[in-house]
Design goal:
By secondary structure, the protein is mostly helical. 55% of the residues lie in helices and 0% in strands. The model has no long low-confidence stretch (mean pLDDT 79). The chain has two helices and no strands. This is Small VCP interacting protein.
Length: 77
């Protein structure tokens, strides 16, 4: 009994630097996100490439502005 406090001659374990602790937590969170994103996916690289390609196309559409007036028209004969 009486094991709740360190002995008088011992010092408490050093606390990590706040910046170091923040970096480790961020790294762990990123690792968890990657693991969760790849769960159930057999070819992660292929999925990432498709996602990047889709984002690139969406960005091109967004930067090109609205389509010009007078696009294709369907005529009924």
């Amino acid at each position: 009994m009486g094991l709740c406090f360190p002995c008088p001659g011992e010092s408490a374990p050093p606390t990590p630097d706040p910046e170091e602790k923040r970096a480790k937590l961020a790294e762990a969170a990123e690792r968890r996100q990657k693991e969760a994103a790849s769960r159930g996916i057999l070819d992660v690289q292929s999925v990432e490439e498709k996602r990047k390609k889709k984002e690139k196309i969406e960005k091109q559409i967004a930067t090109s502005g609205p389509p010009p007036a007078g696009g294709l028209r369907w005529t009924v004969s």
